[in-house]
Specification:
heterodimer; A: about 180 residues; alpha/beta; Pyruvate-ferredoxin Oxidoreductase, domain 3; 6-stranded mixed sheet; B: about 375 residues; Rossmann fold; 2 domains; 8-stranded mixed sheet; 5-stranded mixed sheet; 15 strands; about 40% helix; globular
């Protein structure tokens, strides 16, 4: 099961962790990968912790949830406290620096997602999609083409361009991180 | 909505709605409940597109009543609910069994009893699906463990309902219902559909409950000139109430016979590596996925583990389990309840052979919980 790849997107209810998860899973499906996406619902989705779990594999996926994530994107302090330490060895932890102050590792990639979203689109609400752009820009876990197609198909009516702009900002940020330039 | 042959990301509840449409379902009546709401939501949009009818009813009792009525009118009909709704529907499940009205009842299980934990998975309705209504009656219960299987077994549920004039319950669970997965659906012309049997006898000769042909008399739609009586009372071949033992007994024998004589058609399951196994894991629904992961982990460590995934839970596949269990001394039955299907496995395989793994707290199992029992770890 070496080719199993696990991703957690987590934040506070309303930050769009679940939407971002569906987009990522849809992109993986478009790339022809096997993918399973699950989520937590309920009272948690009204202000508490909210998360989306994605498993991508070249092989058949049996266990549908994340055991130990290869990648975690945490958009709240609580999400970081809860999932940051579950990261697989050598895994990637991405934090929204605007909402997460402390983490268990300095190796985490800290990105001011909310500020970048505001800067790129004028709307903080697409910080989740900026985060998704950073995540995919750094890892290449799905193709950019598939991700953009998924955004176009699944974004709420009238918000496709807004979300694509946010995605572009995320990819640009990933490029700066890879090149060691300031964000 | 995309039902063409290429792969798409699809939710389990969505696959259920699409499977229903593909099977020819043209009537849905229901009352929304987590985690089954998406099925109603999608069918509210999809059914009018294909000339079907969607009704939101005042409660679950009325929902199944409407479904039974639509079926008597000739439509393939379905409702979808979760445990609390299944409890309310039990009265009419018995009615559908008694009157032999084809219908499909989807139960996306959540943690019970009572209101329980609405957004959390469970498999606690296995016995309620089989024995929930009073009296003796057979029923078919199917349980999918992937989004593709949801689609396929929804189609099967309609086919079985029509073929055997019986209510069929599709027993899903929260994870399978809400999970999104990449699926490739079959093209519409590759889907097998069973249509309701017809008859050429003139209306005055028609007997809706006679023992012909082959235990399943055709059910003709109301409104086409065939006048007959339907009741929840025991009835004669024409459908009128009877208290005659010599009419009740043959009827009861027939409704059991129509299922028991067709087990080779009705029993759906998948075996993997059972032949040379030393331990056998039997699972269904979301737990089949966890169990299969655990089985692969144990095999990588050199253990000989067989896997039996049950898709038909009721009638319980006694001979399949008996055959697989005959050589083995260890059978592991993980499930998200306190041991409902394990009781059946114990009945068939012997109590001392069966190792139960039970979890009923709203979380799915971890593969390691099952590996520990397969490999006989002691804590």
């Amino acid at each position: 099961m070496a080719r199993r790849y696990e991703i957690i997107l987590a934040g506070t209810g309303g930050q769009g962790a679940i939407f971002a998860g569906i987009i990522l899973a849809d992109a993986a499906a478009r790339d022809g990968k096997n993918v399973v996406q699950t989520q937590s619902y309920g009272p948690e989705a009204r202000g508490g912790a909210s998360r989306s779990e994605i498993v991508i594999s070249d092989e058949e996926i049996h266990y549908p949830k994340v055991l130990r994530p290869n990648i975690a994107l945490c958009m709240s302090q609580e999400a970081c406290d809860r999932y940051g330490h579950r990261l697989r060895e050598g895994g990637l932890l991405i934090l929204d620096a605007d909402h997460v102050a402390r983490s268990s590792t300095t190796r985490a990639v800290r990105v001011p997602l909310a500020a970048l979203a505001r800067q790129a689109t004028g709307k903080e609400i697409v910080a989740n999609v900026v985060g998704l752009g950073v995540l995919v820009g750094l890892t290449g876990i799905v193709s950019r083409q598939a991700l953009e197609a998924a955004v176009r198909d699944r974004a709420p009516a009238g918000t496709a361009e807004l979300n694509l702009k946010a995605l572009e900002a995320g990819f640009e940020t990933a490029r700066k991180i890879r090149e060691g330039r300031p964000l | 909505m995309n039902t063409s042959i290429h792969s798409v990301l699809m939710q389990g509840d969505e696959a259920c709605a699409e499977g229903a449409i593909a099977a020819g379902c043209r009537f849905f009546a229901g009352y929304p409940i987590t985690p089954a709401t998406e099925i109603a939501e999608l069918l509210a949009r999809r059914l009018p597109q294909v000339g079907g009818v969607f009704i939101q009813m005042e409660d679950e009792i009325a929902s199944l009543a409407a479904v039974i009525g639509a079926s008597v009118g000739g439509a393939k009909a379905m409702t979808a609910t979760s445990g609390p709704g299944l409890s309310l529907m039990q009265e009419h499940i018995g009615y559908a069994a008694m009157a032999e009205i084809p219908c499909v009842i989807v139960d996306v299980q959540r943690l019970g009893p009572a209101t329980g934990r609405p957004t959390s998975p469970a498999q606690g309705d296995v016995m309620a699906a089989r024995w929930g209504s009073h009296g003796d009656y057979p029923i078919i219960v199917l349980s999918p463990s992937s989004v593709r299987e949801v689609f396929d077994l929804t189609v099967k549920a309609f086919n079985f309902a029509e073929q055997y004039r019986t209510p069929v319950i599709l027993l899903m669970d929260e994870v399978i219902g809400h999970m999104r997965e990449r699926v490739t659906l079959p093209p519409p012309d590759a889907i097998e559909r069973t249509e309701r049997a017809v008859t050429t006898v003139p209306p005055e000769w028609y007997k809706p409950y006679e023992n012909f042909p082959a235990d399943v008399p055709p059910l003709l739609p109301f409104g086409e000139g065939y006048r007959y009586h339907i009741t929840g009372l025991h009835h004669d071949e024409r459908g009128y109430p009877t208290e005659q033992v010599d009419e009740i007994r043959p009827w009861l024998d027939r409704i059991f016979r129509k299922i028991e004589r067709n087990l080779s058609d009705i029993l759906l399951y998948e075996e993997n590596g059972v032949e040379d196994a030393e331990t056998l894991v039997i699972a269904y629904g979301v737990t089949a996925r966890v169990a299969r992961h655990a089985v692969e982990m144990s095999r990588e460590r050199g253990r000989k583990v067989g896997f039996l995934k049950l898709q038909t839970l009721w009638p319980f596949p006694e001979e399949v389990v008996e055959h697989a269990a005959a050589r083995l001394h260890r059978i592991v039955v993980p499930e998200l309840n306190m041991g409902q299907l394990a009781r059946e496995v114990e009945r068939v395989a012997g109590r001392h052979k069966v190792h139960r793994i039970n979890r009923a707290d709203g979380e799915i199992m971890q593969p390691s919980e099952i590996v520990a029992v397969i490999e006989g770890w002691t804590v």
